[in-house]
Amino acid sequence: MCGIVGYVGRRDCSDVLVESLRKLEYRGYDSAGIAVIENGEIVTKKSKGRLDNLQAKLDEEGKPNGHVGIGHTRWATHGEPSDINSHPHSGKRVTIVHNGIIENYKELKEFLMKEGYSFLSETDTEVAAKLFDFYYNGDPIGSIARALKDLRGSYAFGIMFREFPDRIYAVRKESPLVVGVGEGENFIASDVTPMIQYTRNYYLLETNEIAEIKEDSVKIFDVHKNPIEKELQFADWDVNAAEKGGYEHFMLKEVHEQPEVVKATLSPRIKDGMPDFAGDGVDVEKLSSYRKIFIVACGTAMHAGMVGKYVIEKMARVPVIVDIASEFRYRDPLITDEDLLIVVSQSGETADTLAALRLAREAGADTIGIVNVVGSSIAREVDSVIYTHAGPEISVASTKAYMVQVAVIYLFALEVAYRAGKISEEECKKYTADLLGMSDVIEETFALKDECAYTASRLLNAESLLYIGRGLDYALSMEGSLKLKEISYIHSESYAAGELKHGTISLISDGMPVIAVATQSNLAEKTISNIKEVKARGAMVILIAGADIEVPEDAYDELIRLPKTEELFYPMAAAVPMQLIAYYTSVLKGNDVDKPRNLAKSVTVE
Ligand code: F6R
Question: Are residues 334 and 272 part of one domain?
């Protein structure tokens, strides 16, 4: 996830671009850069780190003077944050900014190298820039359309051609992009936030529609160069709400980004319908040979690991030990060079997780990181890193980062199971397709919003509550419980449903809320008997159930039915109502949802 902007008009372009990028900094802050046409030449300025670094560079070296330009704020996906990897990227006659992921950039790079191109950066975007240059034949739209045929993945591009200094071009697929229409000036941006102060009129581009933007005109074409008539949209958002995409809080926005980021994370790792981690540097041949797999992480990331334990053990029949990083690092764990350690971390900087990784490396274990922040400490120290593509997560309570961690772990489980001969190619392909389809299922769960808000209203006065489930549902309950307690400040615990009667059930008193999850058909009946046990003692039960699970009416006070999906992947669907229940409870209590008390987003101390 990155932010892109572009401007053609009479104002000072450098100033407009930097100001616009400031409004998009929430989309990424690994680096920033602009390219402006000055006296017929494209002048590029870029800098690693936050936008202030770019501003300082412009103050020191002088800003490019011109009226046509593009800009970028980066959330790194390929290549660590650095000046060289920052956008814009150029070919000889073309300069571009890009938000998205070019999945086949390695093949394209090899092809372009054979054609005599050399590369400065490690990015997929430079490959796209050089591809546009390769096909450039004096006709911007024709050459963009030709290059798009070769590109696989997601993109929103802002493109400038040296020979056409009066204009910019824009095109998108899967990544967002709007074209703002002003008076004597026009804009592009990843969302309407940056342009709202200049104009509220904009066009939405559909896949592979190519916009040609000049000072006094915006024309849109299809890939065959036929002009397209589009309806002008009007943005009525207030400026403050805009960077949250119109949502009241970042958490809610991030919940709604989950379908998109699941797709962005999984698609580059699926080839010919099968999981493929070769591009992440994972030694896939070795995957079925480990004696044990350790998954070590903290908090929500550790809960993603719990889902991993159930899935990897069930599918690949390899023992998986999940550990809290702060425990693992001090308990002299039995890890050897025959084992694999997977560390899971959104930030890639969590001190305990990093220490656990170092300890496992000393013991000779192979290590894989599932990490969201490119170039972070954990990403640099693991043998191979599988980057999740959640984009920046601003809300302290993790939602989309958890979802993509779980998605990657599922795909990884399928890869190990297939390599170990535990599932056939046909089965693997079916599961892989179903997993990718979870993006749509997650979208469907948003329809449960009102039920979740209602549930939240019933939790408000609770002093304490329980989350219960069995198997995968128990793994998910842990995350549901953490989400609720960290932002609503209501005490809650998660319990394996079958464990209640060994002590915890004595806590149940009249009206105490119990959130139960039943999505796995082989366990549902047992969970439902546990639910009846708590109900008989006065609990108020909210049951989150799979589409086909039979539930008697006396087993719940409120039933939240999930959309139908492959049973194995239900934790991904059930996570959404859990997140929404926590969210609405926090809102109703008047808490600071995005910044809960006593917590920080990145825990770099032990
Ligand atoms: C809770 C949450 C935390 C993090 C934990 C690990 O919503 O976000 O529990 O999961 O602090 O952080 P990372 O993933 O950055 O290592």
Answer: yes
Number of compact structural domains in the chain? 3
- Domain limits at 385? 246-436
Residue 600 Cα to ligand 1 midpoint, Å, equals 9
State the closest ligand 1 atom to the C-alpha of 302, by its place in the atom list counted from 1.
Answer: 10
d(CA 274, CA 415): 8
Q: Which residues lie closer than 8 Å to 264 by C-beta, 6 or more apart?
A: 100, 101, 154, 174, 389
pLDDT single digits (tens) 372-416: 988 788 998 999 999 999 988 889 999 999 999 999 999 999 999
* 397 touches ligand 1 (CB under 6 Å): yes
Q: Tell me whether residue 413 is in a domain.
A: yes
pTM of the model: 0.82
- Enzyme catalytic residues: 2, 601
| Residue 605 in domain | no
User: Closest Cα to residue 355, out of 409, 285, 297, 397?
Assistant: 297
Pair (280, 375) in one structural domain: yes
Amino acid, res. 579: Q
**251 C-beta closer than 6 A to ligand 1:** no
- Residue 7 sits in the same domain as residue 120: yes
Q: How far, in Å, CA of 513 to CA of 466, rounded? A: 7
The predicted-structure confidence for 56-86, as pLDDT tens digits, reads as follows 999 999 999 999 999 999 888 877 888 888 8
Complete edge-to-edge strand list for the sheet that includes strand 186-189: 41-48, 31-38, 68-74, 3-8, 186-189, 178-181, 201-204, 233-234
